[in-house]
Write the structure tokens for this entry.
Amino acid sequence: MAVPADFSFSIGTRLEGRHGRSGVLRTPHGSISTPAFIPVGTKATVKAVLPETMREIGAQALLANAYHLYLQPGSDIVDEAGGLSRFMNWPGPTFTDSGGFQVMSLGVGFKKVLAMEAVGVQSDEVIAKGKERLAVVDDDGVTFRSHLDGAKHRFTPEVSMGIQHRLGADIMFAFDELTTLFNTRGYQEKSLARTHEWAQRCIDEHERLTVERTHRPYQALFAVIQGAQYEDLRRKACRDLESLRGSAGTGFDGYGIGGALEKHNLGTIVGWCCDELPEDKPRHLLGISEPEDFFVAIENGADTFDCVNPSRVARNAAIYVPEGRFNINTSRFRRDFTPIDETCDCYTCAHYTRAYIHHLFKAKEMLAATLCTIHNERFTIRLVDDIRASIDGGYYDEFKAEALGRWQGRITTPTT
């Protein structure tokens, strides 16, 4: 039977004087030690890598995309398969997002861009150059055309909850409207009110579906905090969402910190939110993956975070090492018979050389993406694991200084 007690969060070690902490998230499909990086498997797969391999490199959970799985193969098919974990042969916990990012992307055409600078003329009619508006938001929901075939679809909070319940992830997110930093202050306020109303509808529908679907494990529902770069809006969103309850008294199981933001304000915004959020609930930061962002987010209170970046850049020959990032398809590596990173414990570094991977990219072989994704995901997971160990071990500040000191050297290519 699906019961909320199947989901819980406990705090371990706290960073003195800061919101940061370690902890454990318990779900029906297993526990997640936090802080934790959650790799993104948009269409029920981390591109180019087996789910079994993701487990081997230390992934504790995976995040899939409700919008994409709704369009293909269909949430009903995933449900019939026994839920997302069984469908993709992933035994651990899973997350699904609500489709809010795709609403913004289809509406303004920025596609994969979320972090922006709040400069230039603000406009609520903003759209990326050369793009067509494929989504229109109203107070009840969103009407959009599929990027696959142009067919028209309609998402409301209730539709999003139905899709995510059928997908069966352990943690899902309330349907929200994601704005850009180019939107005016007036629109940000209007959007925040709309997201609040949608959050209430999500809780109500979540309660109904949880009672109806007792044959499935309990699914936790996280609210999504918007408010862009405005402190008062971020704080108001946190307070308002924390106070929401369904008719049966259900509140949110956790909180997602979302929205477009300026990179240099990341820690400040996370800190504003964690000032207001209940300490005993987990906090997920949507869409970050750079080492400096991890440290800022964690010490300001984020427990988990996801991003497609490690796998996306890997497919374009960009490699992470402790000293920075470099492109392995440049001519320098044609005769470099050393591992990508001699300190890395991933499968790729144990078995293959830079020269071989360089060759794979030049030959346009699919294996190039697989080997580089394994390495980048392992690098990212391992870094966050090491941050967690440093919190528990009482040496976080020393570890941060050493790790960022190496990373911020920003080499073009590693020394050999």
Summary: Residues 323 and 406 are 5 Å apart (CA to CA). Confidence is low (pLDDT under 50) at residues 112-116. Residues 185-212 form the longest helix (28 residues). The chain has 15 helices and 16 strands.
